[in-house]
UniProtKB/TrEMBL annotation:
Keywords: Disulfide bond, FAD, Flavoprotein, NAD, Nucleotide-binding, Oxidoreductase, Redox-active center. It is an enzyme of class 1 (oxidoreductase). Belongs to the class-I pyridine nucleotide-disulfide oxidoreductase family. One of its GO terms (molecular function) is dihydrolipoyl dehydrogenase (NADH) activity. The active site is at H443 (proton acceptor). GO terms for cellular component: cytoplasm. InterPro entries: Class-I_Pyr_Nuc-Dis_Oxidored, FAD/NAD-bd_sf, FAD/NAD-binding_dom, FAD/NAD-linked_Rdtase_dimer_sf, Lipoamide_DH, Pyr_nuc-diS_OxRdtase, Pyr_nucl-diS_OxRdtase_dimer, Pyr_OxRdtase_I_AS. Its EC number is 1.8.1.4. This is Dihydrolipoyl dehydrogenase. NCBIfam families: lipoamide_DH. FAD binds at K51, T139, G140, S141, D311, M317, L318, A319, H320.
Length: 464
């Protein structure tokens, strides 16, 4: 048994990044992970496998819908589901092995097993109690359950996101409960693979919290791709009979009761923090009323020397938010000044087209009483997007009416998830819309649409 400077519990993007940064800063570090592989939800059953399926299904869509338009003739490919699952597994495996390599390179001990905290400075894994000066809880989250709905990932009929990534076959029909990011990404992937997908959502709009105009355009585009939407509907239960599921729901506007049958039901009603088995009540680590680990401005819990980050603490449940917190808390523990700017955390939906946003929505900016300018530019005016058959979206920039400072940006369009970062950098530097508008952007790129939206905050876009 050795004494560590830091034991990180959980090797997701929060935990493994924290461990690496702490080791780089000269600390003696161990990371406990109960899963067989490193990388957490993100690498094993989240970001990475879902993006592999989204990419493969997007490629299929391109061959079926757009190849002939470009003069690319030939037999249309069929899906070999086993091989597609193999591609997904290989992508995941390559990435999880990569973290193992980084642990070795940075001399981080991987303590294999499930950890509990015996006391501040004492972490038990299996039968061994390890001593450490600091502990970081990075145990992540798990899919939230829904009353009246029993998930059975092995049966593959009523599944959560983990089950949906490894279905035994592509279902002919699928009901997605919840029109959030995960439901829409996986729903759109299966729709492109041939499933008839219906999304049932409690609220009256998809992707709650997103800019209203983006929500509407996004729904329109997904509907054109074949997804059906039932909004304002409260699911009361799911019954499984003879290998088929029946989803019962009530429309909130008139209390009328309905049902839909499907081969597969994906429950995507959000995620909740996972801290089971850690023994937090025993050591006195306080939780919020929603079950997140309560932290102060330096990610310290209510117990000195025990910190928490990532999905286990309040804030957006995103891998890059967890990573930033991981780096920052490692710096705090090493005696430096860790910092996360929570106002500039991008959010991306990896559908086709992608949806990306950062900062304030128009609604939130107005609600805060700020005077704002809105610059909008449609991808119809962008030559590159038209060549990609992805000209349906737009870039919308929000700037302060008096100072011109960029307050937010919302993009629905090709590679939006890559384009958003120039706005993130601009916001970190406190840039104005004019700063972006005066920056030369290469032609022909989709990023020119960002510049045009910035121009639209001033004297006007050129190509609109
Ligand atoms: C389908 C899906 C798609 C997603 N796509 C994206 C995306 O595109 N972009 C994005 O930013 N986010 C995405 N997310 C969210 C992202 O995966 C999470 O925000 C991120 O993984 C959180 O990181 P974390 O380090 O806090 O926790 P996690 O990644 O959940 O890792 C926590 C780890 O801790 C381990 N653990 C828990 N308790 C213990 C214990 N007691 N002892 C030892 N180990 C323990 C767990 O086994 C787990 O491996 C997606 C999520 C899902 C489900």
């Amino acid at each position: 048994m050795s004494t560590y400077d830091l034991i990180v519990i959980g090797a997701g993007p929060g935990g493994y990044v924290c461990a690496i940064r702490a080791a780089q800063l000269g600390l003696k570090v161990a990371c406990v992970e109960g899963r067989e592989t490193l990388g957490g939800t993100c690498l094993n059953v989240g970001c990475i496998p879902s993006k592999a399926l989204l990419h493969a299904s997007h490629m299929l869509h391109e061959t079926h819908e757009n190849f002939e338009k470009m003069g690319l003739m030939g037999a249309k490919p069929k899906v070999d589901w086993g091989k597609m699952q193999g591609y997904k597994a290989e992508t995941v495996g390559g990435n999880t092995k990569g973290i193992e390599f980084l642990f070795k390179k940075n001399k981080i001990d991987w303590l294999k097993g499930w950890a509990s905290i015996e006391a501040p400075g004492k972490v038990k894994v299996g039968d061994t109690t390890h001593e450490t000066k600091n502990i970081v809880i990075a145990t992540g989250s798990e899919p939230a359950s829904l009353k009246g709905v029993e998930v059975d990932n092995d049966a593959g009929i009523v599944v959560d996101s983990t089950g949906a990534l490894s279905l035994p076959k592509i279902p002919k029909s699928m009901v997605v409960i919840g029109a959030g990011v995960i439901g829409l990404e996986l729903g759109s992937a299966y729709a492109r693979l041939g499933a008839e997908v219906t999304v049932v959502e409690f609220l009256d709009a998809i992707t709650p919290g997103m800019d209203g105009e983006v929500q509407k355009q996004f729904q329109r585009i997904l509907a054109k791709q074949g997804l059906k939407f039932v909004l304002g509907a409260a699911v009361s239960g799911v019954e499984v009979e003879k290998g088929k599921a029946e989803v019962k729901y009530k429309l909130r506007k008139d209390d009328s009761e309905h049902e839909i049958k499907a081969e597969c039901v994906l429950v995507a009603t959000g995620r909740r923090p996972y801290v089971a088995g850690l023994g937090l009540d025993k050591v006195g680590v306080a939780l919020t009323d929603r079950g997140f680990v309560q932290i102060d401005d330096h990610w310290q819990t209510s117990v000195k020397g025990i910190y928490a980050i990532g999905d286990a603490v309040p804030g957006p449940m995103l891998a890059h938010k967890a990573e930033d917190e991981g780096m920052a808390v490692a710096e705090v523990i090493a005696g430096k000044h860790g910092h996360v700017n929570y106002d500039v955390i991008p959010g991306v939906i990896y559908t086709t087209p992608e949806v990306a946003s950062v900062g304030l929505t128009e609604e939130a900016a107005k609600e805060s009483g700020r005077k704002i300018k809105v610059g909008k530019f449609p991808f119809m005016g962008n030559a590159r997007a038209k060549a990609l058959f992805q000209a349906e979206g737009f870039v919308k920039m929000i700037a302060d009416a008096e100072t011109d400072r960029v307050l937010g940006c919302h993009i629905i369009g090709p590679n939006a998830g890559e384009m958003i970062h120039e706005v993130c950098v601009a916001m970190e530097f406190g840039a104005s819309a004019q700063d972006i508008a005066l920056t030369c952007h290469a032609h022909p790129t989709c990023s020119e649409a960002v510049r045009e939206a910035a121009l639209a905050c001033g004297d006007g876009a050129i190509h609109a």
